[in-house]
Amino acid sequence: MQRLGVLLLILLWALPAAATPLAAQWSFRLLPGNAQATAHPEATEWRSAQIPGSVHTDLLAHKLIPNPYAGAPEAGLQWIGLADWEYQARFDVDPATLARKHAELTFEGLDTFAEVTLNGRPLLKANNSHRTWRARVDGRLKAHDNTLRIVFRSPITTLLPGVQAMPHKIAGNYPSPYGDEPKDAMVGNFVRKPGYHFGWDWGPRYVTAGIWRPVTLDSWDAQRITDVAVQTQALDETRATLQVDVEIERAVAGNADVQVTLIDPDGRVAATVEQKASLRKGNQVVSVPVQLANPRRWWPVGYGEQARYTVRTVVDAGKQGRVEQQLRTGLRTVELRREVDRDGGQGFAFVINGVPIFAKGANVIPFDAFPARVDAARLRRDLTAARDANMNMVRNWGGGYYEDSTFFDIADELGLLVWQDFMFGGGMQPGYDPAFRQNVVAEARDNVRRLRRHPSIVLWCGNNEEETAWKDWGHGRDLTAADPVFAKKIWQGYVDLFGQDLRAVVSEHGLGVPYWSSSPSNDLDEKANDSTRGDKHYWQVWGNPALPVQAYLRETPRFMSEYGLQAWPSLRTLEGIIPADQQQVDSPVVKAHQKFMAGEGNQRLLQYIEREFGTPRNFDDFVYLSQVTQAEGIALAALHHRASRPYTMGSLYWQLNDVWPGASWSSVDYDGRWKALHFHAKRFFAGHAVAALRDEGVTRVSLLNDRTEPLRGAWRLRVMGVDGRVRSDERKAVTVPPLAALEVGRFTDAQLLGKADPKRTVAVAELLDGEQVISRQVVYFAAAKDMRLPQAKIVSRWVREGDDSVLELRSAQLARGVWVEFDGFDAVLDDNALDLVPGEPVRIRVKAEQSAKALADALRVRHVAEAMGR
To answer: Which pTM was predicted?
Structure first.
């Protein structure tokens, strides 16, 4: 059994007090003389640049390229990734900064091969978009007219000759369809740059360059605080025993007082400790022990408060100066519990503060093709949507970039656990190359130290799908057949990088957070993607061989970290992106926004829609039915995972968010609109829920309780016709234990239906608190296209409750997949994408800026039978 992180270890990191964003006038151009300059001479002129940013966004701001998301411009923009670009900053330096003895320029994000000069002299060379690059500039700054110049070399043209020279290539990810890079010599796995920039099956190929995170100028005299780490040596509800490690850089030796103050979430001083230290020249760590009585612990959402403490650190060296740092963090313990079963299986469960947590959530991909466009509001919008859908975990997938602290501050606040991948999205890396490994280790150290203060981070994972690709997809087999010596070298490099190097970084700097070598894996055990050990990615539904959604019910993992179904975003999200005359399943622009199967993914999506609902009549119905298909399929899987607790202890579907407006597996689209799946997730991830899962003629009913207190209530199972006539009604009192799934019955179709027509009959399972329905699920005995679903007449009524408008919907007949929207504007609904049981109203709270009359006039309610032309 692996028990890591039984001690809470948290790091606090920030820029020194004198660090400020570089105040400069930035400009950019296509480097004159570059091969792309002949075809694009207009781009060689100096123009203003926005920092942070990218060359694509700067070109767009000057209207030198079209909107990269609208229409189908992607092929015509690939020249940008083949070009070299130059950025230049002119800036002055204030007298106070110049007067300090030490100065440092910090580049938080250079994408990617960058040559930096300051006032005409070389400063640094960068080759990793994920690293923070620092350069001392003592004595090199002027009061006026400093010039900082950065040349970015194309990653494709830089690396392609070496890749093409390899006698046997290592596996990449998605080959370019545009001719900018040979399909048999992809460079993406050789460069430390976000993998998705080279294209993925949910987003475009835009190989960016630029300064994508801030540039800061730090200055100091005698000393600065470079790091603060808070290590919890013991923690329970009565006491926290802490050790605060203060990392100090000194210009000269001397004495100082080091003071640490903890301020509780209500702003009261909880503890203050001061000690004297004798400091030498250079870097050192001063450890300060702190005792905290009755600590308020940080909990994932649904289990307690998200308490965070402010930690103020002061180093006072008298005449040599005083420096201070202040940050917020939370106190919690984390353990990855891996208990071995009697049959040889091994569990995979996150335990926070001693409580085993069933992980409910989704995978997170980058929020935009151009990271600098992602602001705090976008992050808060989508992470709040995750919390509001009763998620408690997100997985930051490895083909993007390490998010900045804003993302994790929001996750800390909302109580979302974060599974954090290192930035390896697939394929295989040249881990056999010592320089490559050294670069990755520096990247890992930068980011673990930068982010480890956040209590939300509960796992560092080496990569996404690289081990299973090597072992299960033929990558290792094919290379071994071609060159067994090289294949052995590649695999040993993999083991060295992900089994040793990154594990060592997390062990040294991660402060007790567990490390996991790959997802899916059993941490370099023999089998990579195993249902009995480790975490699982399951793509036999949707992927190959595209099994029906009922197959989800026959796959019971220890922790499901990926599974998914596609759906299109709403037509409102596609406005201005796909012209009305192109809104057809097989139109060129629609195919350009469907990246799965190189644009042919709508055929796979139609396959799933047609299995259940038949062929959509038009693009509008296609979009709507794609969302119903996605929502109902993922609900089956998630409820099955939850009903399999404690054998299964996590369900993270693919994916939460979108990188652009197009077809994908997301539940929240690029504009923040909830798809049907997200409304379903709010129900199937609720703390109390009913799971009624039918497969091969048997319906299994389970009651789910994720809370730490028992649930006392009742469950009810009715069988009724689609016209509302009740054939049977069973109700029983029940107590569901805490942190448990309780199966209350298995029923054959014969037991439920008797002689009733399965095409006209449904079962309704409910979890009740008194007469209140806590959770409901409708069970169907035939595919929708085979059922006699009535053309239900849904009656709507508006009422006011406080400041909210409440929409009441009722139907005398069953209405499946009811979707509420408003023509011409958006509204916030607390429920949607639901089934109406005959005669039983549902009430939906609606928040909108429009008047009650405008809401009523614009209301549009649709359901499955309508979309099927019944």
So the answer is: 0.96
